[in-house]
Amino acid sequence: MQPSSLSLVYRAGQTPREIPLAQISDFIDDPDNFIWLDIQAPDGKLLGMLGEELGLHELSLEDALTTHQRPKLDEYGDHLFISSKVVALADGQTVLGELHLFIGSNFIVVIRHGPSLDFARSCDRLARQHNGFKPERSTALYFMLDEIVDHYQPVITALFDRFRGLEARLLSGGLAQQDLKKLYAIKHELNALRDAIDPLQGVVLDLIRVHPEIVNKELKVYYRDVHDHALRAVGTIDLLRGSASDAMQFHMATLTLRQNEAVQKLAGWGAILAIPTVIFSLYGMNFKSMPELDWVGAYPAVVLGTFIGAFWLYRRFKKRGWI
Prior knowledge:
- 59% of the residues lie in helices and 16% in strands.
- The protein contains nine helices and seven strands.
- The protein has helices spanning 25-28, 44-54, 58-65, 120-127, 137-150, 152-173, 177-210, 217-282, 298-320, and strands spanning 4-10, 17-18, 34-40, 72-76, 79-90, 93-103, 107-113.
- α2 packs antiparallel against α3 (58-65).
- The longest helix has 66 residues, at 217-282.
- The two termini are 65 Å apart.
């Protein structure tokens, strides 16, 4: 994928304007300017140029170029590096993308890998100076974190709806093999969601507790709100994970119960058939001294006794529910 970028300059009381990426140096030295850089799938050359222009640490640049990272917050001198994951729905399935942020004194650099948010809402709130917030790193970061966390909710709702459909099918008559695979897929997606959003709580808490230069007293309540939303999302995910595990265990218990019922029926009919099998096998041995063979009523008596014994066992097993 070819790198694509968006460069915006915000200034209090003015409409943000887009500038070429190559002209960042003309605006970055003015502390009244706030620079927003949004880059999709950058290569090493582009990140190296940004590193020189903005004074970014080489380790943070290496992290920004690498995917499959756990959400985290690192401090590098005068700037912070945040790694996060974003979620989206594609054909009803959950897909994850990665988001890396550089937060400097008067700039934020957004590095996106894979499916991601366009942060149009955050840009709009920043331009409108939502709630009277000036365009600066603290408010921009809050808007972005708020949008990231809020975007998890529709994905969780979609997974919940898929689970409810499978749960209704399970209670009405059991799951087919394909349904069981779908249930396992839901649990796998929930695990991935939890791995993505749970560390984000720690990132927000670290910002509140350790970085007062970013989260000042006025903004603490807003960052705590983001943390609360993340906490509730994790709680909902855990509840769904538990329900999915319970549904799988219920399905396995149902299968075991059905197998036990089948074994009981087979054992019951086997015991009933054992009576004529034993009796008739005795008379198939061709012994010479079997006096009852000369009795006139021997054959009817043996048949009747066999039937009575088999019927008695049938009634006993039927009463116990074995057949």
